[in-house]
Amino acid sequence: MTPPDARLERLLATLAILIIALISLANVLVRYFTGGSFAFTEEFSVFLLVVLTFAGAAVALRRNGHIRIGLLERALPGTPRQALILFQGGCGLIVLGLITWYGGKLTWQEAQWGSLSPGLGLPQWWYLAWLPLLSGLMLLRQLQQTRDRLRGRLEDES
């Protein structure tokens, strides 16, 4: 059986790490040859690291690769095991739901206030909008993972 995939998140993570590498390399070369550096690299790199983190976490969720202690889960028989899986999934959904809600609220407030980023003076909400979007994708992946685990499609590592 092929493992489940999160193609969109893999693509986002790949693009983020590629762009981080390219702008960091360019910044090093410019600094070496001119003594100056690009002003935007730190701000973009931090933003792209956040995108990379959330996208990678979504991929790990979909592939059942997040760290958890499965000793109790493996020791339980059918119905209590499924109740534990539902509890785990529910806790994940609550946390991701809160991140999505408050991330969206923060993004909306920043757009209303017209806040600008400290480095480049870009609208702050451009950066923040990715928080609710990617945590929403993680929420979807949490739902898929919980469903697949309940149906026995995803096995835990032994």
TrEMBL record:
Presence of keyword Membrane: yes
Transmembrane segments: 12-32, 44-62, 83-104, 124-143
Main location: membrane
Domain Tripartite ATP-independent periplasmic transporters DctQ component positions: 20-151
One MF term in the entry's GO annotations: transmembrane transporter activity
Bilayer topology term: Multi-pass membrane protein
Highest taxon of the lineage: Bacteria
Pfam family, one: DctQ
Entry's Gene Ontology BP terms: C4-dicarboxylate transport
Keywords (A to Z) from UniProt: Cell inner membrane, Cell membrane, Membrane, Transmembrane, Transmembrane helix, Transport
GO CC term, one of those recorded: plasma membrane
Subcellular compartments: Cell inner membrane
Keyword Endoplasmic reticulum belongs to the record: no
Subunit (UniProt): The complex comprises the extracytoplasmic solute receptor protein and the two transmembrane proteins.
Similarity-based family: Belongs to the TRAP transporter small permease family.
Function: Part of the tripartite ATP-independent periplasmic (TRAP) transport system.
Protein name: TRAP transporter small permease protein
Protein species of origin: Halomonas ventosae
